[in-house]
Amino acid sequence: MRKMTLLSLAFTAFSALATVATGQSGQFSPAVIVNDAVVTRYEMDQRVRFLQLLRAPGDPATEAEKGLIDDRLRMQAAEQAGVTVSDEQIEAGMAEFAGRANLDTEQFLQAIGQGGVAPESFRDFVTAGLAWRDVIRARFAPRVSITEAEIDRAMSVAAQRGSGPRVLLSEIILPLTPANQLDQRDLADELAGSVGSEAAFAQAARQHSAAPSRENGGQLGWIPLTNLPPQARQVLLQMGNGQVSPPINVGNAIAIFRLRGLQQGGEIAPSSVTVDYAQYLIPGGRTAEALSEAERVRGEVDTCDDLYRVARGKPAEQLLRDTRALSAVPADIATELARLDDNESSVALTRGNALVFLMLCERSATLAQGTDPTIPVTAAASDLPEGTPVIDPDLGYGRGPGRAQIREELVNARLAGLAEGYLAELRANAIIVTP
Q: How does the average pLDDT of the chain come out, rounded?
């Protein structure tokens, strides 16, 4: 009887082990084969869970299969191109993705772990994306050329730059150089965890930020969300009022933001429009000679900057250039500017005995509310604490996105289109088998 009991127990244990082994075998069996590269059922399950946690649109099972097939194709393309991704790049990519949820990497891994997603699955997801980005840049970036005219159009009110959601922010901008980047990253991590209150954030901005806003404790008025780089927009849209962002890499600087308000926005309000315009005064009023001179000037200039060449050697008061909120522009000038596009001119007005050659330099809607663009940005004062950086007028987002940011956005948009076409080509040429 005892032997029977032991045999029964042994059989039961063996059956349990066999069940586990069968389950594991099924879990790691092929779900899809992409050019001889296997996607396991475990990977499918992990991706489904991950998409559900992210609340991604579409059917999770369908999107998981499509995403994993594409990831295999991306990694195969990277291997063929000799592209590899370093551990440092992967760690940075994981941190950037986690930052979109206003979490650091460890917090993000804990959050997805509670939903059953392993750290390795997240790491594989990030690695495929980084490798693909490098493949696309190596393959297509040399072919992408963005003209100054394209940048002008993208920054214009006509392109609706300045429409959509608006945010009320405080900012700390830490400039990066090859010599200081490690120290600045450590400082950014320290600040992001210690400046939760408005007073603490303002003090840190005055001491550490290189943006013009630091003179106001880092505070900006309402600005369009599109003033910010895409990676910053994604983070801010996940934040609540009073929250401080993790450090965000914005090219040549690290940014930390404190969200003070969010408006859904919509069309550009007239009160948000700022105009940069020039008046070149031609003696003679509306005489034939003055009108002839105006036509000569029009033929010589393409932009407002060209007027400085025309006015060389003339009295300084003959060329006037202003940047103002549209509501602060004299009514007759505002009426004429309303008829012009950027870099167009008018000779409908006179001032005393002078004909006004009026030129619209730029019409924009990105200036922070309450900012006076006529006030120059000053350098750091001598009584500031040692180590306070000199203000860099090109940093910060109160005066709108810079041309470098717009160029990068246009390049990335162009590359995204090329990447989608290349991936579709790889998909069409692949041998994809579902066992």
A: 89
